[in-house]
Amino acid sequence: MAEHRSMQRAALLDAARSLLSEGGTEALTFPALAERTGLARSSVYEYFRSRAAVVEELCEADFPVWAAEVAAAMERAGTAEGKVEAYVRQQLALVGDRRHRAVVAISASELDAGAREKIRAAHGGLVAMIVEALAELGHAQPRLAAMLVQGVVDAAVRRIELGAAEDPAVVTDAAVTMALRGVRG
Fold first, then answer.
1. In Å, what is the CA distance from 57 to each residue of 51, 93, 122?
2. pLDDT tens-digit profile of 21-32?
3. pLDDT at 104 exceeding the cut of 80
4. Alpha-helix runs per DSSP H in the chain
5. CA-based angle 115:25:16, to the nearest 5?
6. Is 133 in contact with 80 (CB distance < 8 Å)?
7. Are 168 and 95 a contacting pair, CB within 8 Å?
8. How far apart are the first and last CA of the chain?
């Protein structure tokens, strides 16, 4: 019985990822989850009490995987500058990934305070990854610089997600240049 519940929960989360990726937060409804998984709508409520609960669990499941991919890319870089570049490039490479699209959709939605705090904490962990590299580069305020670099990444994500006129590779290169060299390019 426990294994069956675990499989159903996983199926619901997978369906939630798909719905968020395809249609944003408006698409994530309990009737849609029920339809995607073949469950009765009332059964969905046995697994999750609310949409926010689905969102929280998605963040708990997906954000660490995403962060691990960014960390691995940074570890492969040989220099502090290479780590900052890998941090930016890997996050932007994940834009098309369903997990990432779900996290972006989630972060744009109206969540309760608990869910927002979990997302903030997860993003804080991501930003903390480049503080040391920025300190190695001689930045006087590496934590502040890390937060600003993440702001550049977030803006590039939005630009790519909008399907802007620029090729995603052009947006990525511009974000890397901005992160490493500032507005001087």
1. 10, 23, 13
2. 787 778 889 999
3. no
4. 2-23, 30-37, 41-47, 51-76, 80-93, 98-108, 113-128, 131-136, 142-161, 168-181
5. 80
6. yes
7. yes
8. 58
